[in-house]
Automatic annotation (TrEMBL):
<keyword id="KW-0805">Transcription regulation</keyword>
<dbReference type="InterPro" id="IPR011991">
    <property type="entry name" value="ArsR-like_HTH"/>
</dbReference>
<dbReference type="GO" id="GO:0003700">
    <property type="term" value="F:DNA-binding transcription factor activity"/>
</dbReference>
<keyword id="KW-0804">Transcription</keyword>
<dbReference type="InterPro" id="IPR001845">
    <property type="entry name" value="HTH_ArsR_DNA-bd_dom"/>
</dbReference>
<dbReference type="InterPro" id="IPR036388">
    <property type="entry name" value="WH-like_DNA-bd_sf"/>
</dbReference>
<dbReference type="Pfam" id="PF01022">
    <property type="entry name" value="HTH_5"/>
</dbReference>
<protein>
    <submittedName>
        <fullName>ArsR family transcriptional regulator</fullName>
    </submittedName>
</protein>
<dbReference type="GO" id="GO:0003677">
    <property type="term" value="F:DNA binding"/>
</dbReference>
<dbReference type="InterPro" id="IPR036390">
    <property type="entry name" value="WH_DNA-bd_sf"/>
</dbReference>
<dbReference type="InterPro" id="IPR051081">
    <property type="entry name" value="HTH_MetalResp_TranReg"/>
</dbReference>
<feature type="domain" description="HTH arsR-type">
    <location>
        <begin position="1"/>
        <end position="87"/>
    </location>
</feature>
<dbReference type="InterPro" id="IPR047796">
    <property type="entry name" value="SdpR-like_repress"/>
</dbReference>
<keyword id="KW-0238">DNA-binding</keyword>
Amino acid sequence: MNDTFKALSDPTRRKILDLLKEKDLTAGEISDHFNMSKPSISQHLKILKQADLVHDEKQGQYVLYSLNTTVFQDIMSWALGFAKKND
């Protein structure tokens, strides 16, 4: 879970997750929303993948990125369980 919180701590990665919430995107489509180099976007995507927040799937010559909603469900479950312990 540490990798998850590290990944979520960066505003660029949170924006990427917001974009993927709308639809699956390629790295190029994601980079169109930012004023930074494609290698920088690739590094952010790598961190999100390591945290298991996104999945990637090769489709032809492109890699399509999508949200891993299971991890978000786990985070919510953990947070709700933590809140209940403090009631």
